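User: Predict the structure for this protein chain, please.
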Amino acid sequence: RSTSHTLPHTHPSMDELLEAALAEGGDASDSQESPSSSRQRAHTVALDDSHSSSLQISIVDYKIDESKMLYTIHTKTTLPQFSKQDCVVKRRFEDFEWLHARLCENQDICGVLVPHLPPKMVLRKFETLPGYPSQEELAFNATLQRRSGQLERFLHRLALIPVLCDDVNFQVFLEYADELNPRKPSIMEGFFSFKMAPSTKNDPNPEFEKLREFNNTYLTRCSNASASCKRVVEVTKALAEHEGELAAIFKEIKSSNSNASNLKLMSLYDVFAAGLLQDEDVTYTIAHNFEIAAGELLADYVGQCNAIKDLHDRRLHLLKNTAAAATALEKAKAKASAANAPEAAREQEKHAQEACDAAQVLFENTSERALKELSKAKQQRVGDFRKVLVTFAETQIALAKQLHEQWGTTLTALKSLELNPPTSA
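Assistant: Here is the predicted structure, written as structure tokens:
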């Protein structure tokens, strides 16, 4: 691909970066934008105190049509590895997949815990009148906005890890102005293979097997908890809808009995219906609190567990490589030690020894870094969990107080109504 602008000679051109980072493959099909489905998000989350002034990444807009979704990513940076200080690019979800796959396949950073990528989401089309979106469409649009925030957090997490932030693929993703058009990423084609057979060589560090078993158990429990949380949200939203329906019924009863003899009774209906509508609003907020706080946290934990699982798999693949390199070295030594062995055999033994040493060093370095990454992830997970639970509990208490005050007001209003004593027949 060629670009229409010229970059400073002090930095490699984006053509060179793309050539180094993109594998050859077919272009993805183009899609047309739907202006009516554009949603704006103009917020930026600072990475941390040390990065807030040097690198800021935000997804400021997204556009959707029947089958494609484009995210507009705005980057501001003063880091020297970037060729531009301010750039805006458009990316599809498959571009995020490509970036994640390239980072996972890089053997130079295989000991790093690469942040997880949110799963692919099925886009939907709603048949509604212009200007009158359905509740289902409004909920789906809210889901799209949350997803945009999840992808933004993914980029922030990458930027917080220096070795990933310096990776050429990350720079291409943020700077290359044209479409990346990557082929569908396939880890099986890269350096690592996640769906591989387990290594037959015993792990020299049994601590990793314990960590791996713990992560698998934790992943199962987080997945079950996430599913339960979704059911809680669905039931709570259904409760809110029924409260609204019940309030509407009371209002219908009032309107159908409007004669003077029933005014006091109709006032009771009116006050109670108002209480139900207030309860409906708070119940929806409770469901939203579950969905945003507990639900998204558990979903994030599921993704983190999968990222940890990928790290274990990459390390096991390196262990498998060391075993293969050792086997190749033994064969080369056998050929070189044979009588009248040619010079090529001794040269092959030398290369096999170098490959075996390199595989062993890579495995040991990866194992050392992986232990540090897993320990850091565990500490951060505990801290994040406590923070979210505290916020969740505080919100639940505030909502419970709000419900108490609202029904207290309704109770006072009900008691203040003076009903006429029944008349004798």
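Residues 1-52, 185-200 have pLDDT under 50 and may be disordered.
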